[in-house]
Amino acid sequence: MSIQLDFRTLSLTLMLFSLVFGLGMFAYSREHPKFSGIKTIGTGYFLIGGGGVLLGLRHFIHDFASIVLANIAIVIGVVLIYRGLFKFIGISLRFERWLSPILVVLLAAVMYFYTFHTPDVNLRIQAFSIVFAAACFIGASGLLQHREIHNRMVARMLIAMFLLVGAFFIFRFIWSFYEIPPDDFMNAGFLSALAIIAGEFLVILSSFCTIWMSSDELQDELSDIARIDPLTGIYNRRAFDECCDIEFSRALRSGTTFAIIMCDLDHFKKINDQHGHHIGDEVLRRFAAILQDRIRQHDVVARFGGEEFVLLLPNNNTEQGLQVAEQIRATTEATQITLNDDISVTLSASFGVAHYCAGDSDWSAVLHRADNALYAAKKQGRNRVVDLTTAHQGLHTDLMPREQT
Question: What NCBIfam families does the record point to (predicted)?
Fold first, then answer.
């Protein structure tokens, strides 16, 4: 049995596509409420599907519903699709706020006039085509003006989609001046059939791109969770290891050097014992903020574990690392944290500094030396900066058992 792709069949397929993808958008939005605009896109699909149903019921229902309401619903659906996309991405177009309603009102007036006062199928086709094309070009314009879309491939696909569909309806508008005017829209010809297929294309591709963008954001969020320390908001040890791998490879290729600073809050266990872990957590957050404020943009700071933190300083030698560590030490010593109006905590920290040497087989060798230097700083009385390559304490470089901090 063959399927006749007439207007009624195409209208029903448009309704089915729109209903399925609209329900999918609402279900996805319910599962991921953090994404704004997806419900708006789903509502647009429902309106396009509803317009398709009304078009397919031509001659079975009143002309106002099958012509005026049907075409208005489809155009409003397109408006809601690009408004949802704009909201999802974070685009704001001032002219769109007033232009889209004007287009809808003008279309409604033209459709009503050329349906009930001066019936003219061809003029209705021309009016719908130019308004639909304008809506598509508004969508493309917003995406073209927004240069910070995370996935440029998705952005190009959406722009191409709006431009292609808009260009098709412009062609349909121009072609309508050269073809014989139809006496009934249900027999309006091949281009009108393609117009319904273009609506299906718009629904399918826009939903695909929306899910693609949201999946990218979820993936980035999971990546951040895996790399960011949840308490302090800075990198964790895993992320620090990745950064060191990259910096060590750069040092091998170009002969540059880098410094690593390990630091440890002094007597942190006493703070936890006296004031509770919630105060200790706030102290860790404040100290992490101090570290972030004292480094360059391309430096890396991470929480190594407990009250230990580590910094990676690219293109720095030990002398420069010592200067940075001393600045942080002085800032930390001068910091007094007041919490709950009755708890005052004075901080201090110990620092160990080391830098990459040409003979190092791995960056962990630098970290090992920085860790030994940190132990030396704590052994000497804390609240100081130590570099074993320049210190003269005669300490061994092997790690010794850590004393309680």
Answer: GGDEF
Residue 401 one-letter amino acid: P
Dist CA 40 CA 283 (whole Å): 44
> What's the chain's length in residues?
405
Q: Class of 237-386 per CATH?
A: alpha beta
Look at residues 132, 124, 127 and name the one whose alpha carbon lies nearest to residue 185.
124
Cα angle: 168, vertex 173, 179; to 5 degrees = 110
Q: Which two tokens stand for residue 210?
A: 């929306």
Catalytic residues: 307
Rounded CA gap, 290 and 234, in Å?
A: 12
**381: helix, strand or coil:** coil
CA 65/CA 57 separation, integer angstroms: 9
Residues 6+ positions from 254 with CB-CB distance below 8 Å: none
Phi and psi for 221 in degrees, rounded to 5? -65, -45
- Read off φ and ψ for residue 7, nearest 5 degrees: -65, -40
Question: H or E stretch including 76?
Answer: helix 70-89
pTM of the model: 0.75
- 3-class SS of residue 368: helix
- Domain edges within the chain: 7-227, 237-386
- Give CA 344 to chain center in angstroms: 40
Q: For domain 7-227, is the CATH number 1.10.8?
A: no
Residue 19 CA, distance from chain mean position: 27
Angle between helices 237-254 and 363-379 (to 10 degrees): 120
Q: Tell me the two tokens of residue 111.
A: 């459709």
Residue 284 C-beta-side C-alpha neighbours within 13 Å: 23
- Residue pLDDT tens, the chain, 405 long: 344 457 788 888 999 999 999 999 999 999 999 899 999 999 999 999 999 999 888 889 999 999 999 999 999 999 999 999 999 988 888 889 899 999 999 999 999 999 999 999 899 999 999 999 999 999 999 998 876 666 788 989 999 999 999 999 999 999 988 887 777 776 767 788 889 999 999 999 999 999 999 998 888 888 888 889 999 999 999 999 999 999 999 999 888 899 999 999 999 988 888 888 888 899 999 999 999 988 888 899 999 988 999 999 998 888 888 999 999 999 999 888 887 767 788 889 999 999 998 888 899 999 999 999 999 999 999 999 999 875 433 333 333 334 434
Q: Which amino acid is at 325?
A: A
